[in-house]
Design goal:
Length: about 130
């Protein structure tokens, strides 16, 4: 069998190319993304971290009140989905796809759906 192990020079080149790509991505994101969209993205990251922590707690420590886990994890996933929909409706790149919906209406629908979601969560947490 031939040795297909990459050389150190190839690994360094691909690592520097990856680093350059990530730097370009971050610079373009900072320069072209609106502040409100960045805020939504931060909240999405918080929800992902919360969901991972809840799931890890359930697996590693205990899942005794199973209905509490379902309520909290389902609420986290539901809020993520609602927020991703709000981001899609309010992002400047996708305005043409949602011609009949203003940004104010999208936010009002997000708030109403969040209230229904929290009532669902409250029902499960009991």
């Amino acid at each position: 069998m031939a040795n297909t192990k990459p050389s150190a020079k190839t690994v360094d080149t691909s690592a520097s190319a990856l680093q350059s790509s990530l730097n370009t991505l971050v610079q373009n994101y900072r320069a072209t993304t609106l502040t409100r969209t960045k805020l939504i993205d931060c909240f999405l990251l918080v929800l992902v971290a919360s969901g991972v922590l809840q799931f890890a707690y359930r697996i590693l420590i205990t899942g005794y009140p199973l209905n509490a886990f379902f309520g909290s994890f389902g609420g986290t996933v539901g809020q993520f989905v609602l927020l991703a929909g709000l981001r899609a409706q309010t992002a400047p790149d996708t305005i043409g796809e949602f011609k009949g919906t203003s940004q104010e209406r999208a936010f009002a629908e997000f708030c109403a759906a969040s209230i229904v979601l929290h009532l669902f969560m409250y029902n499960f947490l009991g």
